[in-house]
Amino acid sequence: MKAMILAAGLGTRMEELTRDTPKPLLPVLGAPLIAHSLFLLYEQGFSFAAINLHYLGDQIRNYLDDFPYFELQFSYEQEILGTGGGIATALHRTALDGHFWVLNPDSLYQPDFSLKEAQQHFMKTSVPDNHPDIAPLLMMQDRPKGSAETGFEAGNHGFGGDGFRAGNGSSNSKHPNGKPSNGGPSHADSEIRSPGASTDPERPVPGKEASIKSGDASRNPQGVLPLLFSTAGQYMYTGMALLHESQFAEIAPDEPFHIVDDWRRRATRSPSGLLGLFYSGKILDAGRKAEYLAIRDNGSLFPLTYRQGLSDFMQKWKGSDFFID
Fold first, then answer.
1. pLDDT of residue 133
2. Which of 14, 79, 155, 252 would disulfide-bridge 226, Cβ 3.0–4.6 Å?
């Protein structure tokens, strides 16, 4: 499997924390955010990742220069290209191709399902043979009432006839201190904004806190479902998606492109050409300074198996001195 890690952002939502350090290198439990993303890919059996770079990109590349587990390739952007433009450029400059997963290092994913199985199921049940236009598959979660994040609702035509379910998580969302969460934004594609939200991709949205988010895929018995944009929608995007190179065929390298424009166009079709699957597992949102500081050194937010696995992952990579308590 292949993946694209979005690491080209300016990180201005972190304020002074990113003055001299790019956001993907800010530590959580002593390991940079991007190391958590790579740990997820390693645990899930990926063999390749493309990473786009812009702000302080040399720092990120230098840190990853000795990465031992699978192949990394880098795509530099002279200017911020947006999620769609960054992916399209990486498709031209790296070995990224076919189906690939997209994620952002400021979301720490702890899925309780196999991304490989989800991808295989999607390709088997929702990708017509020899079809030139493969739909994006967005991993979705509950959207709290009053959230400024863009809403989605399920369309009427179901896909995935054998009922694949992305794990068996609960639908409870909690703040790190155990209180109910207001549901932090995904940030993995900051282009998705509701009308009342900030139009600046890096501008803070007031009232958001670091949160653990989980989903109950059993509420989606058909598995993959078509999505519609809706201001009152009950779902929102997690920032994780399974995309395909064909979705970027008309975008030239180094051309800015907002991927949400394409998703909105696809969602107007009948049935919708934008698909979703309910995410099951935990997500720690570190997209803004307050959220990041709330989880940076809080090991209780991570299961012991995660901490031990990450510690082993980092020790084999960066040396025996690396230890996560």
1. 75
2. 155
Which residue ranges in the chain fall short of pLDDT 50?
158-164, 168-189, 193-222
Query: Residues 301, 295: contact at Cβ < 8 Å?
Result: yes
Q: Supply the Cα-derived Rg of the chain in whole angstroms.
A: 18
Cα–Cα distance between 314 and 124 in angstroms, integer?
A: 35
- Rounded-to-integer distance, Cα 273 and Cα 227, Å: 8
**How far, in Å, are 177, 231, 313, 317 from residue 320 at the CA level?**
32, 50, 10, 9
Residues 299 and 272: their CA atoms lie apart, in Å, by: 41
Q: Are 136 and 260 in contact (CB under 8 A)?
A: no
Task: Supply the pLDDT for residue 167.
Answer: 59
Preceding peptide of 271 cis, ω within 30°:
yes
Paired tokens of 260: 């949400």
As a whole number of angstroms, the distance between CA 134 and CA 129 comes to 10
The pTM (predicted TM-score) of the whole model is: 0.83
Q: Please name every residue paired with 99 in a beta bridge, in sequence order, or none if there are none.
A: 244
Nearest residue to 247 (alpha-carbon basis) of 47, 87, 76, 79: 87
Helix (H) / strand (E) containing 140: strand 137-142
Of 69, 71, 56, which is closest to residue 26 (Cα–Cα)? Answer: 56
Give the pLDDT confidence score for residue 139 in this predicted structure: 96
Q: What pLDDT, in 10s, does the model give residues 59-96?
A: 999 999 999 999 999 999 999 999 999 999 999 999 99
234 HSE (CA, 13 A, CB side): 7
Question: 84 with 257: CB under 8 angstroms?
Answer: yes
Beta-carbon count within 10 A of 139 CB? 29
Cβ neighbours of 312 (radius 10 Å): 13
Rounded to the nearest 5 degrees, what angle is found at the Cα of 242, between the Cα atoms of 3 and 27? 45
pLDDT score, position 320: 74
Going by CATH, does the domain composed of 2-318 fall within 3.40.1390.20? Answer: no
Which residues lie across from 190 on neighbouring strands? none
What's the CA gap between 113 and 279, in Å, rounded?
9
β-bridge mates for residue 225, sequence order? 276
